[in-house]
Amino acid sequence: MVKRILFFLYLLTLINKFGYSQISESFNDGDFINNPQWIGNSNAFVVNSSFQLQSNDTIANSSFYLATANTLATSVQWEFLVKINFNPSSANYIDAYLTSLSGDLNASSNQGYFVRIGNTEDEISLYRKDGSGVMTKIIDGENGILNHSSNTMKIKVIRDANNQWILYRDVSGTGNFYISEGSMMDDTYTTTSFFGFLIKQSTSGFFQKHFIDDIEIKNYLPDVTPPSIQSATAISSTTVDVLFDEPLDKASAGLFSNYSADKGLGMPMSVFADAQNPSLVHLTFENTFNNGEAYSLTINGVKDISGNAISNVIASFSFYIPQQYDIVIDEIMADPTPEVGLPNSEWVELKNTSGFPINLKGWRLNDLTGTSGPMADFVLQPDSFVIVCATSASTNLSSFGKIISVTGFPPLDNGGDLISIADANGKIIHAVQYSSDWYPNELKKDGGWSLEMIDTKNPCSGFSNWTASIDNSGGSPGRKNSVDGNNKDETSPELLRAFATNPTIITLLFNESVDSLKSAATENYVFDNGLSASSAITIPPLFDKIKITLNNPLTKGTVYQVTAKNISDCSGNNIGEKNLARFGLAQSADSSDLVINEVLFNPLPSGVDYVELYNRSQKIVDLSKVFIANRNSSNAISSIQQLSADNFLFFPGDFIVITIDPNVVKSQYITTNPDAFLKIKTMPSFSNDKGNVIILNEQGNTIDEVNYSDKWHFALIKNTEGVSLERIDYDATSIQNNFHSAATSAGYGTPGYKNSQYKINEDIMGEITITPEIFSPDNDGHEDFATINYRFPSPGYVANITIFDASGRPVRYLQKNSLSGITGYYRWDGLNDKNQKLPQGIYIIYTEIFNKEGKKKQFKNTIVLARRYN
User: Fold this and answer.
1) How far apart are CA 629 and CA 639, in angstroms?
2) Is residue 163 a contact partner of residue 205, using CB atoms and an 8 Å limit?
3) Is the CB of residue 698 less than 8 Å from the CB of residue 625?
4) Residue 857: is its pLDDT beyond 90?
5) What's the rounded Cα separation, in Å, for the pair 550 and 804?
6) How many CA within 13 A on the CB side of residue 181?
7) Residues 340 and 470: beta-carbon distance below 8 Å
8) DSSP 508-521
9) Taking the chain, what is the end-to-end CA distance rounded to the nearest angstrom?
10) Which of these, 149, 96, 93, lies nearest to 121 by C-alpha position?
11) Strand bridging mode 62-69 / 385-390
């Protein structure tokens, strides 16, 4: 008797403390004992690491409960989250007691109302429990809604002042997509003392699989506001989706007469509510919408579930077919490690650069290895962003902006990749072929930083319009790029090269994307040798290649020429002077068709190796079928590398320089033909003292091989670092006597053009000529220096040049032991060795040359130095 009194006093304390206050419980304090206090089988529950109330009872065929004091029974709204990681049954369910007379939810004499989550029909239903132990289902929920191995749901129940009950469920668990299970009038019990959860479980397979969170009990304020329109979006040429801000009354939402569009569209011919979202209505009209034209949709009489009707509200919509570059890939996170401030996940960001909302439903992301799954229904508004990522990365990235997760998200290569975005019909809207070379420094190149587009109005310029993010977090997903700015493309597109894939089809390659319509016009291509284009097709995804079908087949051994005109890039710049390319039918290279013409195997500390080839044959050779290699310690051919992954034609009499970094070579040596460079991803290793350079054809046969040695360099050169070995004679065998150090006057290397030591007619005697005869070094741009031109019979001559005045006194030692090429020049600026001006008069230029065989020769030339005075 004493225990009963004490328990009754405890209950009175709870009721007095909490009974008249609303309840909001998220278990974020890690506690369910206090604030508010819960009574019952407390040992059967825990608050887990996710701050959810979780069952912890491990007894089979048991029932257990928790209850907390609550006196709100009428004009009240209950809302809570429930998750069950099992398919419920008649022996495994949860009863959520909205009202309960007793704190003991298991008591057979208890009275109140509860929501049963589960049971045999896998449903969510509302029951009334009478004191006699009888339970009556007053709202019968949809059967099978919980017929899954895992179920997460938000449940909301409203009881208004008239005792009308309405039961809602949202199986997304977000509370954004409530659907009514029904309504019913019942006023049997109008008071309560408790709210709580009773769990019924059978075997161990159901232990610890019940989760409860986000409980809110509050006074119900009747909805007296009509629904409003959030958006009206044309998703096809005849269909408009209208999204309201709350669930709708199905009957009024489905009436044709409640909708009418202007410009002759009238009422829709079909109206149906979305099966998943009760706030969404799909309208289909008989007549098609004009592309890009705005329409007005008038909506009247549509009610929410509380009966509030919308009155003559107008929403605008427009149908728009996305064009190329309307959606652009404007940020790429290919290498998220090491983390700087963003999650360790790959992603790309899309931006809508058009003036129209664009639905990305069915769109896909592609790369060189595959295609992602289709994107979900998502409308990207103008000047807005969305992050596209793998499903597994969506949780990590959701806090940074709007997310579209796709299955099969293509893995983004750290070093570079070709990625594109295609609409639901497979049309390429934008593509980017990025490279790790686009990063401005090695730190950001190492990972953790995104690549950002600078100017999204200039989507085709490639590396010149991309750079690493400068945001402190390493990127700017979901918002304007940190490097955003004006970067207008004012550069003309260039025709890089052309190649034939068969006798009647050639492909033209440009340095950037070109206008698809102009590039498909056959009249924009002019050929020699009687050829013309019968068709032209721009090749996606980059649209930088044009496939042309010829009217007549090509003849083997003939070099043809094509000129492109009226071609423009996607910024409207017309093609300039670089509009011509050669092409022809390629042939396999045999022994000595190509020769190794120059080798830099000991570069400067900041330099890279290069190998120059010369095509001494009459064949057009495709370098995609040529390979470079070396020999290993066992003297076997190794480190074989393909020269080009793409077709690249090498014409008779041409030079080509193979290197991993053409820009470095061009910055360190004189370059007269910057187009004669071929970048290779990996170069075989060439030792600084000696080694082997080998060129192979597609059959693996040797085309040419040079077994070089540092001892081949000119003996008087003390430091051979940065000095290339040049072939003297294309037709001689690759032996030591046919290679020589590149001339000092040529900068110790001639990549891409004729060697400084190239052999000339041995009968021609050496000569020195001076131009002009009179020079005036006054910096007026006219004859400001003297040019000392030389021509020697063979390579390897060393020159000493001394300037004497008319009295025979030396005034300038212009060159000392300078290794000269066969032809070249030196210049004198009219100054002495102290960089002081010399007086006008006659001067003698004395040149002495010699080689390592002891051959010598002297030259004396006179020149007049004149001074002009104002």
Assistant:
1) 5
2) no
3) yes
4) no
5) 66
6) 28
7) no
8) EEESS-B-HHHHT-
9) 129
10) 93
11) unpaired
Kindly report, residue by residue over 332-384, the tens digit of the pLDDT: 999 999 999 999 999 999 999 999 989 999 999 999 999 999 999 898 999 99
Contacts of 531 (CB under 8 A, 6+ apart): 550, 551, 552, 554, 560, 562
Average pLDDT over residues 734-738: 71
Instruction: Tell me which H or E stretch contains 13.
Output: helix 2-18
Are 454 and 470 spatial neighbours (Cβ–Cβ below 8 Å)? no
> What is the pLDDT confidence band of residue 7, given thresholds at 50, 70 and 90?
very low
Q: What are phi and psi of 623, to 5 degrees?
A: -70, -10
| 3-class DSSP assignment, residue 582 | strand
Distance of alpha carbon 91 from alpha carbon 81, whole angstroms: 21
Q: Is 510:567 a contact under the CB 8 Å cutoff?
A: yes
For residue 713, how many C-alpha atoms fall within 13 Å in the half-sphere facing its CB? Answer: 25
From the list 656, 572, 339, 365, the residue with the least C-alpha distance to 474 is: 339
Nearest to 777 by CA among 830, 813, 844, 841: 830
The answer to whether 547 and 537 are in contact (CB under 8 A) is yes
| Rama region for 175: left / alpha / beta (φ>0; ψ in -120 to 50; rest) | left
Question: 401 Cβ partners below 8 Å, 6+ apart?
Answer: 385, 386, 387, 477, 478, 479
> Which residues fall within 8 angstroms of residue 708, CB to CB, at 6 or more apart?
599, 601, 686, 690, 691, 692, 693, 725, 739
Q: In the Cβ-directed half-sphere of 184, how many Cα atoms lie within 13 Å?
A: 18
Sheet with 313-318: list strands edge to edge.
259-261, 294-299, 313-318
Please state the φ and ψ torsions of residue 354, each to the nearest 5 degrees.
-85, 180
Within 8 A by CB and 6+ apart from 855, the residues are none
Question: By C-alpha distance, which of 539, 505, 534 is closest to 521?
Answer: 534
Compute the distance between CA of residue 192 and CA of residue 202 in angstroms, rounded to an integer.
30
Residue with tokens 């509302």: 126
Name residue, tokens 């887990």.
48
Q: Tell the residue number behind the tokens 């190509």, with chain if given.
A: 594
Per-residue burial over 480-489, b = 16 or more CB atoms within 10 Å of its CB, e = otherwise: ebbbeeebeb
| Amino acid, res. 86 | F
Tokens linked to 217:
């009990």
Looking at residues 212-217, what average pLDDT do you find? Answer: 97
Strand, coil or helix: 848: strand
Mean predicted lDDT score pLDDT of the chain: 91
Tell me the pLDDT band of 316, cut-offs 50, 70 and 90.
very high
Identity of the residue numbered 593: D
Q: How far apart are CA 472 and CA 68, in angstroms?
A: 48
Strands (E) across 784-836 are located at 786-791, 798-805, 810-819, 823-828
CB 88 within 8 A of CB 122: yes
Radius of gyration of the chain (CA): 41
| Per-residue buried b or exposed e for 803-821, using 16+ beta carbons within 10 Å of the residue's own CB | bbbeeeeebbebbeebbbb
Cα 89 to Cα 160, 201, 202, 204: the distances in Å are 31, 9, 10, 14
- What does the pLDDT read at residue 20? 43
Task: Specify whether the CB–CB gap between 848 and 858 falls below 8 A.
Answer: yes
Q: How far apart are alpha carbons 379 and 294 in whole angstroms? A: 17
Give start and end residues of each alpha helix (H) in 503-582. 516-519
pLDDT at 729: 83
* Complete edge-to-edge strand list for the sheet that includes strand 823-828: 767-771, 786-791, 823-828
Rounded CA separation 658/611 (Å): 5
Phi-psi region of 212 (alpha: psi -120 to 50; beta: other; left: phi over 0): beta
Structural contact between residues 574 and 617, judged by C-beta atoms closer than 8 angstroms: no
Q: How many whole angstroms separate alpha carbon 60 and alpha carbon 66?
A: 18
Distance CA 187, CA 351 (A): 55
* pLDDT confidence of residue 759: 66
